[in-house]
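#lab-general

N.A. 3:47 PM
ok so I finally got the sequence cleaned up, no stray characters, all 498 residues accounted for. can someone with queue access submit it? mine expired

B.Y. 3:52 PM
send it over

N.A. 3:53 PM
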Amino acid sequence: MEDKEKRKKDKNSTKSDRVTLKKEIGLLSACAIIIGNIIGSGIFISPKGVLEHAGSVGLSLIVWVCGGGICVLGSMCYAELGVTIPKSGGDYSYVTEIFGGLVGFLLLWSAVLIMYPTTLAVIALTFSNYVLQPAFQICIPPYIATRLLATICVLFLTWVNCSSVRWATRIQDIFTVGKLLALALIIVVGFVQIFRGHYGALRPAEAFEFRQDPSVGQIALAFLQASFAYSGWNFLNYVTEEVVEPRKNLPLAIYISIPMVTLVYTMTNIAYFSSMTPEELLASNAVAVTFGEKLLGMFSWVMPISVALSTFGGINGYLFTSSRLCFSGAREGHLPYLLAMIHLKNCTPIPALLVCCIATVVILCIGETHNLINYVSFINYLSYGVTIAGLLYLRKTKPNLARPIKVNMLVPISYMIFWAVLLGFSLYSEPVVCGLGMVIMLTGVPVYLVGVRWKDKPKWIYNLLERITYMGQKVCYVVFPQEDSLETEPLTASKATD
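B.Y. 4:20 PM
back already:
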């Protein structure tokens, strides 16, 4: 009996000592990852863009509500995919599994090259602008100062994520609560104004007074701007292998978080319009700061600090999840194998984190990043549509696949109809922006053919890659993770032969 218990303890000890990604993300941390990734800089940047394209206060509020509704439909589809294909990597892993290497690589290429580094850079710049705002009240903070502070913030959080998964998730938990409190402050102050009778811009007659004739193309662009604020709703799927009981906690976290964020965003915009005219909001480069200056008086400094804390948590969340995308891509052989390695003691993907950090710092150094938001939003929506199309394709080709969660077919079909309409009118309204987004994605085709499909490369290339990998291992103290077949094989083993 004692020998049996000893063997059991040894087995558990061996499992806990294995060099692998640890399952340390519970339901609370899972909700914090989703909420923390969605609520970054978007709600403080996008209201201006949404109002500008929507043309009226009323229509902009409808866009915010509908944008959240679309995210709910998309997240329900991702919940099914997440428990059917329980791999870290999100969209990339699902598309690679369903459509094959090329389509998956194109999503990976556009995400690693521009989508996530640009989003991280925008959030980091928002953080530095809001931190420096109290010191430069009568002028714009210096260009070098904002870039320098943004870079320091990215470097610090990269170090935290390299050091410990637990530290990173604790920061995410704390700052998610902080950013919800910051938005709660805006909402409470705004609704106090409404109860005092200051809601002129929200009266139906004024709310639907259009500054310009509305067009479907402009409404589509308003949705694209809102989608930037909502981006991140699918990020828990990037760390599925680190979630405790993913079949239970993944969908539950999605169903809790997305409606909460939609409610908070809508109420925050209502609060903005309780104290700011549409003209004032369009003229402001820092909506929350303008709001604070008008209503908080001597305590207006609270607002930029609160927003800075919110964006700080957003940077941490994006670093945490986007590094797992690089990790998953390398594990599939689509990126250098060094990026699929984790630290021997901390069990964190240090090489992948460093790549995300360096790409973000490069974009920060290039110059203006806000012009890239439309490119990012377009590529984001494109990847969402391709992924959910994969769900429909999988339903048709493998109907007997084990699916712990199976959404009604109307959900993915409704999402795809909205997706097709939105992208179609976006292409019509902004052909250059959307065309450049497509070009960025398609530049990955020759890279895939040369880097992945071409197997008979000269021996010196393989030798060079081996040396670089070996040096990277020594510098970062990383090895390939030990995989457990029971955890990594899909929960999708077929009930019957398809």
